[in-house]
Amino acid sequence: MRRLTAIAVVTSAAVAVLAAPAAADTRPPLDPAALAAAISGLPNEEASGALLQVRGDDGRWRGTSGVANVHTGQRVPADGRFRIGSMTKTFTATAALQLVAKGRLELHRSVQSYAPDVLPAEFPPITVDQLLTYTSGLPSMEIDHKDPVWFLRHRFDTWTPRQLFDLAFYREDGTVKDMRFAPGTAQNYGNIDYLVLGAVIEKVTGRPYGDAIRAGIIRPLRLSATTVPGADTRIHGPHARGYELNDGTYTDITDANPTYQWAAAEMISNAPDLDRFLVALLSGKLLPKAQTALLFRIPDVKVHESDQNAYLGHGIARLPVGDIVFWGKTGDRPGYNNGMAATRDLGRRVVFSVNTLHMGGREQPVVSQKIIAAVAGLA
Asked: Domain Beta-lactamase-related: where (predicted)?
């Protein structure tokens, strides 16, 4: 990024066939065969399994491929839970915007005024809005937390937000790092903005940031498979296992402590819950009109150190694919590469999760790329 059904089988994929009519617009119609082909052929050297769900007026389809457990051959559950990674940011942004709507947060008030002990005194004023849109210019942690060696050594460590901020803002000798750029002058995607945003939410509410997500999103929408796990290392409920493949050996990496990702990337969910969340968010059921409009408002700046225009709004991204513009968020953790997105009219919505076998890397897995192309009618 990233009903009336009949069950069919395509290679190793369990597929629910398209049943609803296509939308009366210019979008290419959904192609069940292309969707099935996108996730077929698993497991392979790149991924052990995948699940894909498409909903909306354009039609409905869902399928799985590969295995949930490489040792038992158990199939991937269509409603299986997975580590959603940076899709957590959309939940954190929504919780913050709900506080804005209630008058408890002000977008253009400084982080320092809400949480004076989070940022070094040397840093310039940074607004809540700049955190939400990744335009703060804050430096970030330099640890590659998706490096297999580091991950396997530290996967069960518990991190505090203060430890994360110290790693981000201070050098080993205790001196303060330089800002990446002046606040508000560029966009730079990363976790640090949303880690700080989590701290701001906690200062304002006096409660863990996850409580704001539970109270404002999870409980009202009855998202029964969605959790903010804290230091819990397990995925509870049905799920596909995550693995790292090295020299023919599968290392199970499903269990891990997500506190290093905290408010930026710690959550767990499943496809039905994420679709319900997207519908409620984009249709204005979770936020008043003014705050819903902010989701789609992108800063008029460039991506840091590039000529690319900014593409991230307040918690979601503008994701053009072919002739279709989706709005949503991708996310990944070791063993899981995921995406959720929808057109503005909600006529075509997608949620997917791919169980990758090699953590890290700059490119999306080929399976994820095929999914995105098939959903957009490019396959």
From this structure: 46-359
